[in-house]
Amino acid sequence: MHNRLQLSATVEREADLRYTPAGIPVLEMWLRHQSRQPQAGIERDVSCEIQAVLIGDGAPRWAGKLTGQCIAVSGFIAQRSLRNPRLVLHIEHVELIKG
Amino acid sequence: MHNRLQLSATVEREADLRYTPAGIPVLEMWLRHQSRQPQAGIERDVSCEIQAVLIGDGAPRWAGKLTGQCIAVSGFIAQRSLRNPRLVLHIEHVELIKG
């Protein structure tokens, strides 16, 4: 089943690096996206905010380096928890976009 | 700026086809996704619900035919409105997945 989001965004805020009880590093962040997208023959302004999380080896590598940066990310979306349907992007790949 | 979501999902509900004041057809629907995705060395169950909208020529072509179907869609995500930050998938391409 496909589930893949590719997004360019600015990192508005990063949480402190934390570890799961099993010792896996977790870095949560909040992304803001703005672009123009073609739709039904016109260009429309598109914006959104999405919470994102980087789990595993990438988390300590990027921790503290992302706030304010423009990044290109890809990963899958999932609801935050069984009780919270808010969408979270689980980042599989991240790279900085040069300004 | 990249903004592209590819998702396989079941259509839980479809709204009635409507038209904007400019006469552009709009079909709103609600999608449920379930899959397993690899993360930090393990497979995790992933699920989410996302509202989606098909705007333009595709809307009347698919109206009334999607509820209960499994589909593969791609498009961009945007917040619902200036005041409502909920994410909506703007569908650019849809195809039925054979069961």
UniProtKB/TrEMBL annotation, chains A, B:
Keywords: DNA replication, DNA-binding, Primosome. Pfam families: SSB_1. InterPro entries: NA-bd_OB-fold (IPR012340), Primosome_PriB/ssb (IPR000424), Prisomal_replication_PriB (IPR023646). SUPFAM superfamilies: Nucleic acid-binding proteins (SSF50249). The keyword DNA-binding applies. It comes from the Bacteria. Homodimer. Interacts with PriA and DnaT. Component of the replication restart primosome. Primosome assembly occurs via a 'hand-off' mechanism. PriA binds to replication forks, subsequently PriB then DnaT bind; DnaT then displaces ssDNA to generate the helicase loading substrate. Belongs to the PriB family. NCBIfam families: PriB_gamma. HAMAP family: PriB. Involved in the restart of stalled replication forks, which reloads the replicative helicase on sites other than the origin of replication; the PriA-PriB pathway is the major replication restart pathway. During primosome assembly it facilitates complex formation between PriA and DnaT on DNA; stabilizes PriA on DNA. Stimulates the DNA unwinding activity of PriA helicase. This is Replication restart protein PriB. The gene is priB.
